Amino acid sequence: MRPRRSVLYMPGANERALEKAKTLPADALILDLEDAVAPDAKVAARDRVCAAAASGDYGRREVTIRVNGIDTPWHADDLAAAGKAGPAAVVVPKVNSADEVRVIAATLPEPVEIWAMIETPVAVLRCAEIAAASERLTALVLGTNDLAKELLAEQVPGRGPLLGPLSMCVLAARATGKAILDGVYNDVRDADGFERECRQGREFGFDGKTLIHPSQVEPCNRIFSPSEEDVERSRKIIEAFEAAQREGRGVVTVDGRMIENLHVDNARRILDLAAAVTQT
């Protein structure tokens, strides 16, 4: 299992940022050709990002490239160049349908994966269809800034109005066996607020969070890593379940609570993540 607790956006037009990313403890990097790059710098940034992705200089970090959107003049050339560079995945903004995923999967060479960004109301409503569109699609990425702009008439504190859409996307990811990453937290000076949102995202079922500043990496890794208590409980669940199977018992309890297959699956996922985190 590949950990994706902390996924850091790095501006593709900034060579110093791409170099700094080699030293950061993020699980994954999104080398960005979209929002972080001005229109007149798109082509130069594409060349720089693709060279970085192909370099092999980022160690254990999962390196992805965010291309420009499907409806932009740079999209096709971005996809072609990214496919040749061979990143772990291509991150596609504003995916709105399963057909879009299938077209991208047919365009990209294997084994490059697809991460689909969910950023619009229609994408939320079709999230399960989008997630199931291709085995090449391995992760959903929430674009909460754009989603909030489309949903809300005015900015409000907290994420109350987004909780329904976030839950729908987590359900879609779990139903289709995909990873899912929470959106960014914009105020890099508000460390307490960032940690609260990380905890909320983990409680909602997100696998990790996308980040916009290196200072957010360490707290994100800490919060999205399984605790010692999580690991110990997961071991107890699996041991009790396997013992019940050997003895032919249909009812399994741990600490007075009934255990079902979904609890066992989640316990195995936690142990896999703990083992992967230990290896990084």
Descriptive overview:
48% of the residues lie in helices and 16% in strands. It is an alpha/beta fold. The strands form 2 sheets. An 8-stranded parallel β-barrel has the order 1-2-3-4-5-6-7-8, surrounded by 6 helices. Strands 9-10 form a two-stranded antiparallel ribbon. The mean pLDDT is 94.
Please outline what is shown here.
This protein has helices at residues 15-20, 42-55, 75-85, 98-107, 121-125, 127-131, 144-151, 163-176, 191-204, 217-224, 228-247, 261-279, and strands spanning 6-11, 28-32, 62-66, 89-92, 113-118, 137-142, 179-182, 208-211, 253-254, 257-258. By secondary structure, it is α/β, with parallel strands linked by helices. It has 2 domains: 6-224, TIM Barrel; 228-279.
Structural class: alpha/beta
- CATH first level of the largest domain: Alpha Beta
Q: Which strand-content bin applies to the residues?
A: 15-25%
Return the domain count: 2
Fourth CATH level, the homologous superfamily of the largest domain: Phosphoenolpyruvate-binding domains
**Assembly form of the protein:** single chain
Largest beta-sheet characterization: 8 strands, parallel, barrel
Order of helices and strands: EHEHEHEHEHHEHHEHEHHEEH
Strand order of the largest sheet: 1-2-3-4-5-6-7-8
Q: What is the name of the CATH topology of the largest domain?
A: TIM Barrel
Radius of gyration over C-alpha positions, nearest whole angstrom:
20 Å
Shape: globular
